[in-house]
Structures are given as structure tokens and as C-alpha cells.
Amino acid sequence: MGRKWNNIKEKKASKDANTSKVYAKFGVEIYVAAKKGEPDPESNRALKVVLERAKTYNVPKAIIDRALDKAKGSGDENYVELRYEGFGPSGSMIIIDALTNNVNRTAPLVRSAFSKNGGNMGVSGSVTYMFEPTAVIGLEGKTADEVMELLIEADVDVRDVLEEDEAVIVYAEPDQFHAVQEVFRSAGITDFTVAELTMLPQNYVSLPEDAEAQFEKLIDALEELDDVQQVYHNVDSEE
């Protein structure tokens, strides 16, 4: 599928680790998910998804506990979930998911990142129709055939099972996220290299070298924004 999920995750975590941005963003995401329902992942599926993602990024337990304690206590910050869409160089398409406590701040910052790096924001729906919500779960120590056999035995349907960079990546419908993980946990697999609910493009594009450099600057500028939680795109990331 052209994503190489483990490489993407490791690159992003390595880049963000220098400023601890990834931890701060997870802190906000965990707080928001916990405030939506009970601050217990067993009864709050949205929180459970975020905590699974945090685990694959090695977010420290102290960060997680602080966010949960804030949600349980007197934390009264109000965050709004926003989605922006836009276009980068050479036909690239980008989706940005944000969590913000100041709507008037976020949109201008996202728009500025686009305009300064060869892109432009689109209207709602201009890009998302080319993407599909997808659950992505990765693990090591099994072959694709072995993973498929486990899923078939458990009667869990998925879209695809592929071997990528010495790991097996399962692509499934979003509502199968927890079901797929439970299949693996029942087989003694508790650590996942990837555990994401993401937006996968229906088609990927490859960029010429000059456009690719500009595109990377655009993605970096968007991901640097404190309010931005996730950036999805349709550029082939295989190296």
C-alpha cells in the first residue's frame, strides 16, 4: 500500500522526540477522549484507541496518568475537534485533524503553513472523498499467512494482511480495530508496532524530487503546529 507504517511511525517519533511534541499532543488527545466518557479504557472505546496508539509511540506512563488525572479531576478545558483539507505540490492531497481550545487561532496557522509551503487549503469535502477511514494494526513474530489464519479462525474480517519491513500489517474497517487486537492478544501477542485509526488514500501519487522536498516542508510545518494531531496524505512514502 506504499505506506511502510513502521518507518513512518519511527521517523515521526524520532523527529518529535527532540521537542516532546508527540507527548504533549498525546496528553491533549488522552484528556479529550477521557472527558468524552468515563476515564476508563474498558468502558470508553475512544480512550482505549488513543492509549493503544500512545503505547506504540512509547509515551511515558507519567504523561498518560497526568492526562487521565486531569480528566478525572477539575480539568475544564474545552477542546474542539476540527478537520482541514488541502492540496500540496503536484496533486498531493492532505487532511489535517486538530484539537484546539481556540478555533480562531488554529485555522489561520494551518492556512499559513499551506501558503508558505506551496499548498492551499480546500473546502470541506474537497479531499476526504479520496480517502477511506482504516484501522491499521502491526505486529512482529508472525508471518502474513499465520496472521490470516488467526483472523479466519476467529471469524474476523479484514481488508488486507501484508508483510512490510519485517512486520505484518493488518488493514481493517475502523469498527474492527479492537476485534483484531483481541484476536492477537488471545494468541499471546500484546505488543503492536502500529495501532492506528487513520485515513488511507484510494490512490497514491509519486512526486518529482523538487516537489517532494517542498511537500516534506509543508508536512513538517503542519505537524509542528501544537493544535495539529494527525496529518494524512496521498504521497507514496516508500523509500
TrEMBL record:
Gene Ontology biological-process entries: regulation of DNA-templated transcription
Record keywords, A-Z: Cytoplasm, DNA-binding, Transcription, Transcription regulation
Chief place of localization: cytoplasm
SUPFAM superfamilies in alphabetical order: YebC-like (SSF75625)
Domain TACO1/YebC-like second and third: 79-235
Start and end residues of each TACO1/YebC-like N-terminal domain: 3-73
Pfam families, sorted: TACO1_YebC_N, Transcrip_reg
Annotated compartments: Cytoplasm
GO MF: DNA binding
GO cellular component, one term: cytosol
Protein family membership: Belongs to the TACO1 family. YeeN subfamily.
Protein name, UniProt field: Probable transcriptional regulatory protein PGRAT_15535
Native source species: Paenibacillus graminis
Species classification: Bacteria, Bacillati, Bacillota, Bacilli, Bacillales
